[in-house]
Amino acid sequence: MYVLYLCVTGVSNIIKRDISLPLMAILSIAGVAILVLMRGDSWLWNFLCWENLTKYLQFFTLGLIISKYRNKFFNTLTKNWFSTLMIVGWIICMLLWYNDSFHNRFPLVYSLVHDIAVRYFALMTVVIMFHRNAQYFSSEARSARTLRYIGQRTLDIYMIHYFLIPSLGFLTIFLSTGNMLTIQLAIGITITAIIVALCLLISSILRQSQTLGSWLFGVKVRTA
Q1: Lowest-confidence region among 25-39, 62-76, 152-166, 183-197
Q2: CB-based contacts of 204-212 (< 8 A; 24+ apart in sequence)
Q3: pTM
């Protein structure tokens, strides 16, 4: 996605007109259309991880848009109507997600809810939570500093974590029956913490090279 963005900004530089956001938006919409209508299963499709590209490019583009219009976006986060809409929307999407009748009767709408809507509502809800507690996260408390560091390395974690996800099939027999939400959360949080720690360790090693840091994670090369 980052390489694709570099190509788009390169086109903007050539024509001397900033069309990076409109182009990224078009590519994101095209990615979703390809995922829905032309999803492949060839070795090239899987080798290049095109499913992940077509599915998640929209969120990369969303980040670019928010970065450009951050003041308006942060102002919207303070509105009660917006936070209410996001939280209620997330709850409704989760209820529809686990509704078999809805899944069977409206498969296309279910896919929209399952693959797109719930992700936006959940993402915005989490962003609202962090924004409303910005004072704490700006403090010098150890937990706040740790979270800030993780936040600065989100791209690194995104790029690396896939290679560290363990196979947990052996736990299915223990977690698939009854109400195991608490145990599922405990296991998930523990494994997530370990994966994030390993990602940060690998990231810190790779960032020792300015070239790798720039091409893998978009780190600006420092000039003397």
Answers
A1: 25-39
A2: 206/156, 207/156
A3: 0.72
